């Protein structure tokens, strides 16, 4: 039986209308590097978003479902695009300005962006790409920059402020279907082409509510949030939308992402909350050690993107009085997957195992662990499985391009539609996730899994071992078995495989100890310094490794 | 363009699954009056809800959309019914045990409840009704009670614990449409028959998220919530569902709603949050004045249902260190409409005007003020209008009964589907609502409104006036004009209408001053002591008032 409730769609325009009226006085402060920062109220932001939507529709002929790319830092104008584009029924496509040029070109062409909104300070990055961008008709330049680099380009070039000038400050936002796409973001996987996730109005609305729940960021209009995490990195973890829902003020770093300016803006603007990846926080700690600044206004800092060393969390708390909270997610999860607030009632010391976990699942993110034997692993904190998730802000597919069907590669989606995260981990009985391996890095041996990370850590504990990487290799009997590749320290070349094997056998289950061993001069690394096991697997397949079988 | 997000429905069963696993250790404590309270974990509650669902389906033959009535206090078993019934696809119908007998009979028959779950302590209330309950087949008795009063009744009588015994502790909850009805609640309006609101899974899920947002209750698993507000009063303001979403512990008062036991359970169980109507809080204040108890564990208390005197709010804060927050809502709004947290950055004194308002609208509750001239009034804190609201947990109609279409009376719903609340008020530019009148009590005079409440207050400020009630009467020229009915104090019978009129003219706009006056011996009152203007309007229409026209 149908209920009698109103069938009101959950739309980005509703968040905008609310934020720019009820919270009209909340502010977006954008750092300018020198002098006074730029300050703009949510009310003004709403008016400028309406002007921008009018310009896109009336001047540039943008219609429903057109893709609008943004190549921008975190600033007030980017927030205007965040709201104007989806609210008018078009699709916001945030472009990751740190991607290699060829990937940027691929992504813009695949999404078929009609417009690119670009910060003046990023024109040098965009200009060389323009001849390769088939779909792009308009470039909108925000803020000062050397527009001479655009001379001769095929696209029409517009100045953002001139486009907005004289247009109406309200817009009759259309009543869309809440399942319509509102924004898109491409993941840059390590294999294959980047893949696009299409967020819906519904998913963004629900995600914003979750961000404002006490289990997550849980901020109020007494707070100021500093998203150091870029707005092209999964919607700055949902902060721009969430803040308009509750009136949380925003402090935007623009292009000033070095530790010095970050420390300076925290000291002078006194945000209560910040979000970033660990490397930024590590840099900030070093900066503060060198040149102390007061960052005690921060009540809570969220660290996500990759695991945060506990020592860094302790340093923030003990040296600066700043509470750090881990979170886990990915582009495919909007991104909020887990948040590592510890359970209530524990001592500070007993909280640590929970705080260094990836965090706890909220009601809307349903997890399960696909075990190697084809069942689902129990939540006992010990039994590993590949994490699969389901929920209203989890993707079910990737964008198939202008003419194609959505893509559902089977290594990414289970037959019943859950997202396969590619991460292996365990879940405690009370819903805390700890990730241990990437699924492609575990060794599937006779219906059981062997953690390559665990083997590597055990090996590197041996005094003769400089580095060790373990990869799966085919095995007739067991399906897969581990191959240990080892870099010995200088002067330790006389240490043999037998000794290493005996060392391992004392530390891990016997059936997990590798039979195959190879000495290598160095572990191949990716551009960001991670072990590149793809290369090792390739070398093994090509017979380029000198493998000894014990 | 459709997004690529998963199409996962927002269901009550999802909240149950989450609460009974991730927050399995959170507890429901039910007060028993003497000895240890009854304590039950969320995990056990989930198992018992599954057992109950099996009993309903397998033993009683309950199927999709069947209505299950509950005549129960706030206790753990009521929470079990809250989750089991909607999760299995049936509809939970909470029955207000304070309603007059004839209304209870009407409501149960109109909803066509097949089952009534009743606390043993309420059997005396239910038994006399049974012969009139056509649809009810089963009575399930929860807890001890004198079942002899049920002897000879047509319905099968079951013991709740016996029904649950031996049944499976898990249930494969069906994947429903999120727009399906999950629960129903009848409003007991002052005119006409009670009307039923059918909440959906979607509306309850979204409402639960809102309750857990910082703008509303904003509790965590470190909190214990005491819903003094009954679970038959608009789902105890959403608390049972919301707590399962975030692991907030619950303290349930069962039938012990007198100020003494409430004070005692607060002192011994130390809840951090409580919710109730003003009369309960007034009673508690008096109780504490007489016999001091420590209620300082309470961080926040929500008062709703009717306006709370500021003096009471101050008394709680100054005498007991308990922060009080106003909220407004109605059955038709699930009920969360507004929450009176003041804006950030004000002094304690400047917060008061906001705190004594009805509160601020969240993003999901969109308000507008229908002005007397047919336009919508601006949000200037001055221009009144009838409050209309729209949102995903606002009703669009009333339940039409087993065979009928949903009811959409035009005094309750605008042509474009907004709920007409029947309340007249103003909204500030930053979204705070202050209600001034019931719509039926304002006088529509020449396209403007005259507040009867304002006229009454002005009149009662005259030293000769004991009571005054103002009602609208038809007027050929202006549509409606105010009729002032006045009760003079003893010994003040010589005061004339001219003097009262002159007194008013100095205090309110001249065009609002009544021309029609009548002396009456007393203002007719409703059973709860409010002015009964329906009676006055009837007396005027029947020519029973001695009206003087000045």
UniProtKB/TrEMBL annotation, chains A, B:
Residues 454-530 form the AMP-binding enzyme C-terminal domain. One of its GO terms (molecular function) is ligase activity, forming carbon-sulfur bonds. The keyword Acetylation does not apply. Keywords: Ligase. InterPro entries: AMP-bd_C, AMP-bd_C_sf, AMP-binding_CS, AMP-dep_synth/lig_dom, ANL_N_sf, ATP-dep_AMP-bd_enzyme. Residues 25-399 form the AMP-dependent synthetase/ligase domain. Pfam families: AMP-binding (PF00501), AMP-binding_C (PF13193). It comes from the Bacteria. Belongs to the ATP-dependent AMP-binding enzyme family. This is Long-chain fatty acid--CoA ligase.
């Amino acid at each position: 039986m149908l209920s009698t409730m109103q069938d009101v769609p959950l739309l980005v325009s509703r968040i905008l209308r609310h934020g720019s009226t009820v919270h009209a006085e909340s502010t977006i402060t954008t750092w300018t590097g020198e002098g006074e920062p730029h300050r703009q109220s949510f009310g003004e932001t709403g008016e400028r978003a309406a002007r921008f939507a009018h310009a896109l529709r009336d001047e540039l002929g943008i219609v429903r479902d057109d893709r609008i790319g943004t190549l921008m830092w975190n600033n007030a104008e980017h927030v205007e695009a965040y709201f104007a584009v989806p609210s008018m029924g078009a699709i916001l496509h945030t472009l990751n300005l740190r991607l290699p040029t060829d990937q940027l070109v691929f992504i813009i062409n695949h999404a078929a962006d009609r417009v690119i909104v670009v910060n003046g300070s990023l024109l040098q990055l965009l200009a060389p790409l323009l001849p390769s961008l088939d779909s792009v008709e308009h470039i909108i330049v925000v803020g000062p920059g050397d527009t001479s680099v655009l001379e001769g380009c095929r696209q029409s070039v517009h100045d953002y402020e001139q486009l907005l000038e004289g247009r109406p400050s309200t817009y009759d936002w259309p009543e869309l279907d809440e399942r319509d796409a509102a924004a898109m973001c491409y993941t840059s996987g390590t294999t294959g082409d980047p893949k696009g996730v299409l967020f819906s109005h519904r998913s963004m609305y629900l995600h914003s509510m979750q961000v404002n729940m006490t289990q997550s960021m849980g901020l109020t209009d007494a707070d100021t949030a500093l998203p150091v995490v870029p707005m092209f990195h999964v919607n700055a973890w949902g902060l721009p939308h969430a803040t308009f829902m509750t009136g949380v003020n925003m402090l935007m770093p623009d292009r000033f992402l070095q530790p010095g300016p970050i420390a300076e803006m925290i000291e002078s603007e006194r945000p209560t909350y910040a979000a970033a990846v660990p490397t930024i926080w590590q840099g900030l700690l070093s900066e503060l050690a060198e040149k102390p600044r007061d960052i005690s206004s921060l009540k809570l800092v969220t660290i996500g993107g990759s695991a945060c060393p506990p020592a860094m969390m302790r340093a923030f708390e003990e040296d600066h009085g700043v509470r750090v909270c881990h979170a886990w997610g990915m582009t495919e999860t909007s991104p909020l997957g887990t948040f590592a607030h510890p359970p209530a009632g524990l001592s500070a010391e007993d909280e640590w195992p929970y705080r260094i976990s990836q965090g706890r699942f909220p009601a809307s993110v349903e997890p399960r662990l696909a075990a190697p034997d084809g069942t689902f692993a129990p939540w006992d904190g010990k039994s590993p499985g590949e994490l699969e998730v389901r929920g209203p802000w989890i993707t079910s597919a990737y964008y198939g391009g202008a003419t194609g069907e959505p893509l559902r590669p089977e290594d990414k989606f289970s037959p019943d539609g859950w997202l396969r995260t590619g991460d292996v981990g365990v879940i405690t009985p009370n819903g805390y996730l700890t990730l241990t391996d990437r699924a492609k890095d575990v060794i599937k041996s006779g219906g059981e899994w062997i953690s390559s990370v665990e083997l590597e850590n055990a090996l590197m504990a041996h005094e003769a071992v400089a580095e060790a990487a373990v990869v799966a290799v085919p095995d007739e009997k067991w399906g897969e078995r581990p191959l240990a590749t080892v870099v010995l320290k200088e002067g330790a070349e006389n240490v043999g495989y037998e000794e290493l094997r005996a060392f391992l056998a004392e530390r891990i289950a016997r059936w997990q100890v590798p039979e195959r061993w190879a000495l290598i001069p160095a572990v191949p690394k990716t551009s960001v310094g991670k072990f590149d096991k793809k290369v090792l697997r390739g070398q093994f397949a090509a017979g380029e490794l000198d493998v000894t079988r014990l």
